[in-house]
Write a structure and sequence with these properties.
Blueprint: E1 4-10, H1 15-18, H2 32-47, E2 52-57, H3 61-73, E3 81-83, H4 100-107, H5 109-117, H6 154-175, E4 178-184, H7 186-197, H8 201-205, E5 215-219, E6 225-230, H9 234-246
Parallel strand pairs: 1-4, 2-3, 2-4
Antiparallel strand pairs: 1-5, 5-6
Helix pairs in contact: 2-3, 4-5, 6-7
């Protein structure tokens, strides 16, 4: 029987990842290293014998470009792709654009960790007139304004993501087994992982998702996770996760 597998991939390194800035919904490009990470991710997917039949991504170019590079490397540019704002990164409110280490020095590492990783703690919200507020971005013109966030916690991000999962992604994966590819962001993917793995709030607080490393979840017919694996060694994974955790330190 054909398996149901989801390949989760956080986009490659972006320019603001490199500068250690809170990015959220700001549409920054990949760096050259980020493009190389995308090509390496495609190689890992190919070596694992995975062949996505459909892909899902966000409205943000760092995820879209990562997906394009992967599909080109895998010779799968013909597969259908669904693009949704619901897969966007968590909105960081007034933290958007700030350096994470400098913010930790100003507010304390524990507070920054809560803003970055906690389940139900959101940064201070943006003013609606801010250029970083999505109501001022034409790409969201068809999204009802009351759905566009001025800030988000992980809880808010999951609530925003779940309609896409429940009404489109899950039925497709349940009814048509195979490999599916989700290229998105650190927190939208953490939110999906928390939901699918039924993790508690403390476990997701400590979970850091590196850029460019495929994470594979196998689901049964009831859409429960029966197997999960990163496509790199445990030693390399721990090193990369530690690098992500260190971004919020002084």
């Amino acid at each position: 029987m054909e398996k149901r597998r989801i390949i989760l991939l956080r986009h490659g390194q972006s320019q603001w990842n490199k500068e250690n800035r809170f990015t959220g919904w700001v549409d920054v490009p990949l760096t050259a290293e980020g493009e190389a990470e995308a090509r390496q991710a495609a190689r890992l997917i190919s070596e694992a014998g995975l062949q996505p039949r459909k892909a899902y991504t966000s409205y943000l170019k760092r995820a879209i470009k990562t997906l394009w590079i992967c599909l080109e490397e895998l010779d799968l540019m013909h597969i259908p792709v669904l693009t949704s704002w619901r897969l966007n990164e968590k909105h960081y409110g007034q933290l958007t654009g700030l350096n994470k280490s400098e913010t930790a020095a100003r507010h304390g590492e524990e507070q920054v960790k809560l803003w970055r990783r906690a389940y139900d703690v959101a940064p201070p919200p943006l003013d609606p007139q801010s250029p970083y507020h999505p109501v001022n971005d034409l790409r969201y013109a068809e999204v009802p304004p009351h759905l566009l966030p001025a800030t988000e916690s992980l809880k808010n991000t999951i609530e925003r993501l779940l309609p896409l999962w429940e009404h489109q992604m899950a039925p497709e994966i349940r009814n048509t087994p195979g490999d599916y590819f989700v290229v998105a962001h650190g927190n939208s993917l953490r939110g999906l992982i928390k939901f699918l793995m039924a993790w508690d709030e403390q476990r997701i607080l400590e979970f850091n998702l590196p850029t460019g490393i495929p994470y594979v979840l196998e689901l049964d017919a009831q859409m429960r996770v029966i197997y999960d694996s990163f496509l790199i060694s445990q030693e390399e994974l721990e090193r990369k996760m530690a690098e992500v955790a260190a971004q919020g330190k002084q």
